[in-house]
Amino acid sequence: CVLCGRTDDCPEKYGEKRTYAEYNLTFHYYCLLMSSGIWQRGEEDEGVDGFLITDIRKEVNRAAKLPCNICKKKGASIGCVAPKCKRSYHFPCGLQKECLFQFMEDFRSYCWEHRPVQEFVDKEPREASQCTICLDLVEHLPLYTVLKSPCCKNAWFHRECLQYQALSAGIFFFRCTVCNNKDKFQKEMLRMGIHIPERDASWELEENAYQDLLHCYQHCDVKRCLCKKGRDYNEPDSKWEITRCQYCGSRGTHLACSSLRSWEQNWECMECRSIFAKSGKYSKRKSHALAASEKANETTCLLEEPPPKSPRQSSASPRSFLLHSPKITCQNLSPCSHLELPASNRVTMSLSPMMSNNNWSLRHKHLRARRREACNILKELKVQVKTKTTRLNINAENIWSSALKGFRQRIFSPTNTIEVNFSNCKNRSKTNTASKHHFFQLLMLHLQNSSLFEGSSGKNLSLDFQAVKENLYFEAGKMIAVSLVHGGPSPGFFSKTLFNCLVYGPENVKPALEDVADVDVAQTIKMIKYANSLSSLQSTLQDCCEFLAAAGCLRPVTALSDKNMLVNDILIYYVIKRITLPFESFRQGLETLGVLEKMQMHPDVFSSILCHKPEKLSAETVCDLFTIHSSSDVNKVEGADFWMAYLQDVESGESVVTLEDILLFVTGSCYIPSIGFDPEPTIKFLHIRYPVGNRLLNCLELPITNTYQQFKNIMELTIRNTLRVVRE
């Protein structure tokens, strides 16, 4: 720089460094602007922003004779404007010595002794406060580096922070960060030496700065995207159409990835769902969503093929009982695989009124509907499971240890097909399907009664430090997730509080007194909750002060109404905060195979299988489970009515076998998995002597008999003897 002699290029401090090769001149813009012996005598387009080249050379010659009072070198072009002050200095030297330069009017300069200062009131607090720009502490002292807002009493800034903000915001957007005042604030900052450039804000000058706002968000944000063409693939009017969060619009999902039937269904991201849960408005929104989903069920679905229509049947048919049978398929006899049947030949019929429960409540109907939805979602997750197998050797007498060993083995992967062999069985079945169902049933029963959970019916996580140390809570969550996807039973023992913590986050859940499993703790909370006077409340708190101190709830109580907040804080500590480590570990385990993410996306659906015990088998349930394959005409199927009557006898206790025995005989499982059976159970009537249960195909082959008593005797004899051999 021809004025200060420095080579520094720092636009924030010294202004833009300009070079004019044709005039052999290089200078900092601020050095030129603040020089005392030069004025803008030309137009804006003449010379350098109105500074004529001849005037610049004269100023350089004048400054070359003046020594700097700070660095003692020649070239001091700036002088203090205070009367009788003869100090001269370079612009960079003046900044270093805390001189003040006013970028307004005559561009005055003041030395370190004569610079303007801000007035401080003696009553103002002297402690440090936060700079509202950088958020670091700033001392309330009359220093050069500290500036006070003229419009806000408690707004303090670092000078350097204000200068950087002024350079970025420009004259149109530079204002007080607290009250947004512009005129008064800018006037004071100019007086105190802040340079406010006369241009637009830097963010307004950036080319295409707001281009992103013109784009519609199209990206699938769910944890496990099912689309093979990628998260950004969007195909309208298909299951791969991307829909956005109905509240924020900044998150998206493919319809198939969130099990949505059409784009008309509302979907919200996890962040918005968490905000709803915290605000307490989720229950109202949930009821609206339920009504919308029921309405959506009546319309054609984009993701599923519509079921075949049932042909009309004459009400005067002599075999009218068969019209109310379960799903019956008319087709010529063929190998027992329902997958071979064309949809056009499958005739679906409703269940007999004799077998339906007239007292079945609306709540249970909704529960059944939710479980069917859960089945479909779990089938989507099962797509991840590969044909590669992993074998687990299980000891039924020590189910937990052997399961833990199998899940922790190096070759175990949740995405592999699981085969189970019981090491203490003398005879192993050719197929492992029955063993796998039995293994998951025993495993879920063990977890329900283990020390990892506490409570009577609806269970919460317990606090077991040894289990935390051995990472057993993670393994438990992982086992439940694997069981759901691989065909295990519905756990059904989660409390509503535990489920809501997993879905909405612990911070959005309010526990109840029923969640406290410890009798002594529950009694203490009851005494506080039902205290009828201030003295009795204080006496109770005095007796349990150690417990309250450990819970962080020990506080002075001055009114009887304080007990409500105290009880709430104790419940939050005992049920939620106390088990933070087990909960986080358990939650991570449930993330296996994407189960937790689906839970958070469909809370109502998964609540039906995690918080409610599995539905007890009934004749209606078993009847609806099987698809009957007949020869040619539904009305001429021999034995179908015998099968229906037999199920009714079994349900009413007029048989030596149970409905669970029948299911076990056919499928190898005494329960209906949450994910359903694969393949779906079927029935065929053949000219054979005894019934046959084909567990590979889940197919029950039944004999055609002349009388119902013959049918019943053969069924009971075969099922009872077969299961006795299996159990032995």
Automatic annotation (TrEMBL):
Residues 1-115 form the PHD-type domain. It comes from Alaudala cheleensis (Asian short-toed lark). Its main location: nucleus. GO terms for cellular component: nucleus. SMART domains: HECTc (SM00119), PHD (SM00249). Keywords: Ligase, Metal-binding, Nucleus, Transferase, Ubl conjugation pathway, Zinc, Zinc-finger. Pfam families: HECT, PHD_G2E3, zf-HC5HC2H. InterPro entries: EPHD (IPR034732), HECT_dom (IPR000569), Hect_E3_ubiquitin_ligase (IPR035983), PHD-type_Zinc_Finger (IPR051188), PHD_PHF7/G2E3-like (IPR059102), PHF7/G2E3_ePHD (IPR042013), Znf_FYVE_PHD (IPR011011), Znf_PHD (IPR001965). Residues 298-319 are annotated as: Disordered. This is G2E3 ligase. SUPFAM superfamilies: FYVE/PHD zinc finger (SSF57903), Hect, E3 ligase catalytic domain (SSF56204). Pathway: Protein modification; protein ubiquitination. It is found in: Nucleus. PROSITE patterns: EPHD. One of its GO terms (molecular function) is ubiquitin-protein transferase activity.
